[in-house]
Amino acid sequence: MAEYTTILEGLEVRMRLGIHPHEVEPQRVRLTVEMTVDYPAPPANDAIGEVLDYDFVREGIRALAEARGFALQETLVEAVATLCLEDARVRRVRVRSMKLDVYPDAAVGCEIVRTR
Fold it and tell me: Which residues contact 38 (CB under 8 A, 6 or more apart)?
């Protein structure tokens, strides 16, 4: 068995996220996803078909951001974790979200870890 960590770091999307009146409009949210992925063996042919293609995570997050709003970051990171765990090779996922524009002097975020 070969274990790898596949990382999508700093993906920035504009989305509706929050409970305050000023958060009705889409705002900048940065997401980072780390997936522990198990393969039967290390990739031998240097081909994408042998490993997890992280495009599905990036595209899935963008689709979530466009399709709906979230009141809570906790709900957002759970939705992203669920998306990642749809691939049976993903054993563990860490998802971090950061709202970048809530405060002038700090970003606010949430992070979870989910395992099978």
Answer: 1, 2, 3, 89, 91
* Six token digits for residue 38: 């198990």
- What pTM value is reported for the model? 0.94
Q: What is the Cα–Cα distance from 100 to 23, expressed in whole angstroms?
A: 12
The predicted pLDDT at position 21 comes to 86
Instruction: Tell me phi and psi for residue 84, to 5 degrees.
Output: -65, -40
Domains of the chain from N-terminus onward: 2-115 (3.30.1130.10)
Q: What are the φ and ψ backbone dihedral angles of 103, each rounded to 5 degrees?
A: -120, 150
For residue 8, pLDDT over 90 is answered with: yes
pLDDT of res. 68: 87
C-alpha to C-alpha distance for 27 and 54, rounded to whole angstroms = 24
- The pLDDT of residue 98: 98
